[in-house]
């Protein structure tokens, strides 16, 4: 099987061309690198949870439900916390429900709302899937523990400065 890797870094090459045409490429190279790293990490995380019939986005829903006080949340709250469109939440819940990992239940506090509740099977699967993800260091490769923490702090600063959360 041929090596799928390119013989050069395409972002470095794009940076060189950027500088010839537009000037400083530091911000372009960083933004493009972050987006590429996200693609690589999602591919690895999806592969890690695939044996459990999950995608990483559906895994995130299960973890969010596991972390909730009652093991259930309104669908709107799931979308808000995961920062995804309501249609994506509905689709994820539909699939997880079909797998028996979550169930839709009426909200006892507000009968107009529906909650997604983690099932016992869902609890088991999320724990097994987490073991698989942790065995691959959450798809963070090539960094020391200190570099990982430093990278997190730098990206947190970018998120905060972009208005992602109140700091």
Description:
The protein is mainly α. Helices cover 61% and strands 8% of the residues. The mean pLDDT is 95. The protein folds into 2 domains: 10-52; 54-135, Winged helix-like DNA-binding domain superfamily/Winged helix DNA-binding domain (Arc Repressor Mutant, subunit A, Orthogonal Bundle). Strands 1-3-2 form a 3-stranded antiparallel β-sheet. Strand 2 and strand 3 (114-118) form a beta hairpin. The chain has 7 helices and 3 strands.
Question: Which key terms come to mind for this protein?
Answer:
single chain; 167 residues; mainly alpha; Arc Repressor Mutant, subunit A; 2 domains; 3-stranded antiparallel β-sheet; 3 strands; globular
Structural class: mainly alpha
Rounded mean pLDDT score:
95
Residue windows where pLDDT falls under 50 for at least 5 positions: none
% residues in beta strands: 5-15%
CATH class of the largest domain: Mainly Alpha
Q: What's the β-strand tally?
A: 3
Q: What gap, in angstroms, lies between the N and C termini?
A: 49 Å
Query: Which strand order do you get reading across the main beta sheet?
Result: 1-3-2
**How many strands, what sense, and barrel or not for the largest sheet?**
3 strands, antiparallel
Output the CATH homologous superfamily of the largest domain. Winged helix-like DNA-binding domain superfamily/Winged helix DNA-binding domain
Overall domain count: 2
Give me the CATH architecture of the largest domain, please: Orthogonal Bundle
**Helix-strand pattern:** HHHEHHEEHH
The coarse silhouette is: globular
- Radius of gyration based on Cα positions: 20 Å
- At the fold tier of CATH, the topology name of the largest domain is Arc Repressor Mutant, subunit A
Number of helices: 7
Share of residues in helices: 55-70%
């Amino acid at each position: 099987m041929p090596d799928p890797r390119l013989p050069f870094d395409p972002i470095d090459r794009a940076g060189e061309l950027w500088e010839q045409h537009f000037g400083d490429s530091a911000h372009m190279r960083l933004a493009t690198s972050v987006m590429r790293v996200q693609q690589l990490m999602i591919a690895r995380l999806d592969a890690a949870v695939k044996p459990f019939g999950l995608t990483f986005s559906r895994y995130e829903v299960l973890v969010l439900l596991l972390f909730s006080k009652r093991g259930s949340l309104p669908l709107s709250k799931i979308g808000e916390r995961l920062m995804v469109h309501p249609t994506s939440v509905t689709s994820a819940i539909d699939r997880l429900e079909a797998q028996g990992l979550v169930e839709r239940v009426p909200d006892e506090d507000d009968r107009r709302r529906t909650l997604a509740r983690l099932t016992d099977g869902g609890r088991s699967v999320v724990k097994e899937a987490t073991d698989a993800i942790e065995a691959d260091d959450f798809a963070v490769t090539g960094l020391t523990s200190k570099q990982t923490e430093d990278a997190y702090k730098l990206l947190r600063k970018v998120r905060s400065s972009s208005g992602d959360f109140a700091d």
